[in-house]
Specification:
Elements lengths: L1 H13 L25 H18 L9 H8 L3 H12 L3 H19 L7 H8 L4 H12 L3 H8 L13
Length: 166
């Protein structure tokens, strides 16, 4: 037993790499989309179409939006659309849609006083159909509830007509 321990210690001294183990991110490790049929040009094109569609038509406002429906609108497979969103937007489909919704909600809440637009109305306007899911997504994205965000960043009622009001 003692000889075996000395042998291991000697091996560690002579070849320290023996005890380093294997790295999980070695070059030979398979990438998630390694076998994807998308070329770099196709990815750029699909990403551009996705961005234009979301910016211009604001499909994220549809509470029933799905990956299948989005893929159909883009003329691509849902797997390719999912790949582009995952790799280039850094989120899964639902998180990506919620990020777009929250960005618009932030603009609405900061630009519109409470008397003109309640939080729940903003939630419905940007595509959420439940207040709880809106509050959860909003807090995840901003660190604040929608009401807290409005309190810190929004207009207050009666502020619009005052000189120097923003």
């Amino acid at each position: 037993m003692t000889a075996f321990i000395y042998l291991i210690a000697y091996s560690g001294y002579v070849q320290p790499a023996v005890f380093e183990g294997f790295a999980w991110t070695e070059p030979g490790a398979p990438a998630k989309y390694r076998n994807s049929g998308l070329t770099a040009a196709a990815i750029r094109s699909l990403r551009q179409k996705l961005s234009e569609l979301m910016d211009q038509e604001k499909l994220y406002r549809d509470p029933d939006i799905s990956l299948d429906a989005l893929a159909m609108r883009l003329g691509a497979s849902k797997h390719h659309v999912s790949q582009v969103i995952n790799e280039h937007e850094g989120a899964n489909f639902f998180d990506y849609v919620n990020q777009l919704r929250i960005r618009e909600a932030m603009v609405l809440l900061s630009a519109t006083p409470r008397s003109d637009l309640h939080v729940i109305e903003a939630a419905y306007k940007v595509g959420f159909n439940k207040k709880v899911s809106f509050n959860t997504a909003f807090k995840k994205h901003t660190g604040l509830t929608p009401t807290e965000f409005r309190r810190h960043h929004g207009k207050t009622d009666g502020q619009e007509g005052l000189p120097g009001a923003v």
